[in-house]
Write a structure and sequence with these properties.
This protein has 82 residues and is mostly helical. The protein has a domain at 23-79. The protein is built from 4 helices and no strands. Helix 3 packs across helix 4 (51-79). The termini are far apart.
Amino acid sequence: MLLADFAAAAVPIVPFVLLPIPQARIVSAAVTLMLLIGLGVGRARVAKRNTLRTVLETVSIGIAAALAGVAISVLIDHGFGG
């Protein structure tokens, strides 16, 4: 499990190591979205639920987590006089 967690966490980071920042942002977002869609499809099959609904739930949670991370970083930045 540990290696799977590290691999999943590396997916959005690797493009920033290999590409210039503007291109890395696009590649990172696209690859992450594709993986979230794949995860949603897998969740739907395992749970025998509606695939579209489960994919939308999974992608929505991923987007909400990303936005929460950005919001927290902005709050911390402002909190430390940035």
